[in-house]
Structure formats: C-alpha cells, structure tokens
Amino acid sequence: MPTLVEPTVTVHRSFLEAWDELEPELQGRWMGARTYIGGEEETWSREDLVDPAEFERFVAEARAAADSDAVLAPGIVPHSILWFVDGDEWLGRMSIRHELTPPLLELGGHIGYCVRPSARRRGYATEMLVQSLPFVAGLGIDPALVTCDAGNLASRKVIQAAGGELEDERHGKLRFWVATHTS
Question: Where in this chain does the record put each N-acetyltransferase domain (predicted)?
C-alpha cells in the first residue's frame, strides 16, 4: 500500500520517470526540485538529478527544510516534504508548511500536493492528504489551510473528501480548513 515517507534515494529511477511525465513548464515546480537552505534558493534540473550523488544531495536538502533552525531564503518558512511511494515507485509529493506568512494565509495554505500524471484518478491525492493529517497535527497545526484553484474540481473533491470546510474564495483560490486531530 502506498505511504508517505521522507524523501529517499530509493525512488531515484521512478522520480526521474515521474519528472518526464509532467509538462516542461511544471517539472521543476511540481517535482519540488528547489530548496532554500542557507538563505538562498537552489534549483535542480532533471539532468542534474540523473547523477546519484546529486540526487542524494537534493534529498538531504529537501529533508533539511523541516528543521526549525535552518536558515531559509527570505519569505520561506520551515516546511516538510513527504513523498508518496509504493515500494520504490514515486507517486507524488506533499509540501507541509509549518507556519503561514500573510501570502500563505491568503493563497498558499499549509499543505500542497501533486500526483504524477500516470498515477492520477486512483484516489492517491485523497489518500496522501488523509495520511498527512496526523503529521500536520504533530506540528501543532489544527486546523490546516489547504487551497486550490477555483476551477480545479478534482482538487476541490480531494480536499472535501479529507474533511475540508470551504471558508471562501480569494484571488481565484478556494480556501478550505481541514481538521487534523483524530478525535
């Protein structure tokens, strides 16, 4: 059964395959191939990540972003990256922001996610969001803000299936609050 895990080098091959499935303009953004450690943004191209040593460095930096003591680029908050995997198959990514800046409160929210195109329409996005809620609760966040584009019916259904309650629409984004506690 697929599960959320911290980034790991064991999915190197399938991570690159998933990258290839996305439209070129979405690849770097949705694969999470950027970090903000040391106060600067660093991005990786697919070509960079073919190298196992560079992929290992990317994984380490992605994990480091969750450290509340990490020095991050201006405007970037501590955040946890979790990957949704089935064995060595990379299926998707969760980004969990530990706090909200004014722009994140307005548009971005605590939680963002993506599922690789070949794994869509299998309920994985809902499962990812549901599996992430205890982790988010462990960060002391309850409820969590999750947003989606107003026209993204699939994402709206995912958020509602996880218990999201619509607050409002702002700047073309629907804003939902999702309880993270289990009681």
Answer: 53-164
